[in-house]
Amino acid sequence: MPVRSVTIRTIDGDEIGVKIVDQSSSEDGAMYSFQWDTNNCNPDKKRKRSKLQINILFQDNMKLEIPLQIKFYKSDDQNHLSWGQQLKHINIECEQKSGMNCSTIIKKCFL
Hints:
The chain is mainly beta. It is built from no helices and eight strands. It is elongated. Pfam families: CNRIP1. Belongs to the CNRIP family.
């Protein structure tokens, strides 16, 4: 099922652009790759986190919404690298049951 658009929405309603890098499908399912450049994101204040939602809209108007809570640091801040892990990939395995217009998330993995 081809992807029509991918957006990231902040809790304030602002949309952040996401680049669709790759789409492939087979009899077993489909895989999508997206890229988001965080270099222009403002650092979060002390003890605060950013709440984001990834919205993936497919061509048949089915939508997958993935809520995230993340922390942005200054790009030159090396002190916090040992406190947490840099998010590079999110793998989500979904299943769409026959005759239904919604998907169920089977497995999530944050790398």
